[in-house]
Amino acid sequence: MQGHYNVLFVCTGNSARSILAEATVHHFGRDRFHGYSAGSQPKGFIYPQTLDVLKAVDLPIDGLRSKSWAEFTTPDAPVMDFVITVCDQVAGEVCPAWPGAPITAHWSIPDPAKAQGDEATVYKAFVLARNLLQQRISLLLNLNVAALDRLALSSRLDAMGKVPSNDTAG
Q1: Which BP terms does GO give this entry (predicted)?
Q2: pLDDT digits (tens, 9 = 90+) for 138-147
Q3: Torsion over CA of 116, 105, 82 and 152, rounded to 10 degrees?
């Protein structure tokens, strides 16, 4: 593996966490990493708070949409180098056979769409998800991918999913 890497973030609804991850990798990955997202059961919409927390840190939202993981299993789909599940529900599902045999990992991120309370409380849940993802994605983007074999990469990606947050929702 060397050069340019495609990363697919998978969640159930593809309306919050995986979208946050896609936008983050797409922006900060620049020439090395390209972010994608998909859902096993896409909702067909993106939560407004997802877009709001991206805009709050000047991340572009153009082109983001809720889509099925089936789009990434077709012969003309981009080949993924990494597939990362970001919700516990989809991690337990039988995933498709991804073309190219990408390295897979699971990063458990609390679902901000399940947050209850007033508008500010719900917004903070989306900020927390964005911050957790950005912390883990930063580790991914700083990996010397070309210097590691598949087993080491897999181990590092799994370890990233267990990184405790030292960040708050604020």
Answers
A1: response to arsenic-containing substance
A2: 999 999 888 8
A3: 140
User: Whole-prediction pTM value?
Assistant: 0.91
143 residue type, one letter: L
What letter does residue 59 receive in the DSSP assignment? -
Helices (H), 7-149: 17-28, 48-56, 88-91, 119-141
Q: Which two tokens stand for residue 37?
A: 């997202």
Tell me which residue of 120, 104, 124, 95 sits closest to 12, measured CA to CA. 95
User: In sequence order, what DSSP letters do the residues of 98-124 get, joined into one string?
Assistant: -TT--EEEE-----GGG--SSHHHHHH
Question: What topology does CATH give the domain 5-161?
Answer: Rossmann fold (3.40.50)
d(CA 57, CA 37): 19
141 close to 32: Cβ distance less than 8 angstroms: yes
Q: Could you tell me the residue ranges of all domains in the chain?
A: 5-161
Residue type at 34 in one-letter notation: H
Q: Give me the amino acid identity at 7.
A: V
Tell me how far the alpha carbon of residue 65 is from its chain's centroid. 13
Extract the tokens encoding 148: 């590691």
CA distance 80 to 83: 7
pLDDT tens, position by position, 97-131: 888 889 999 999 999 999 999 999 999 999 999 99
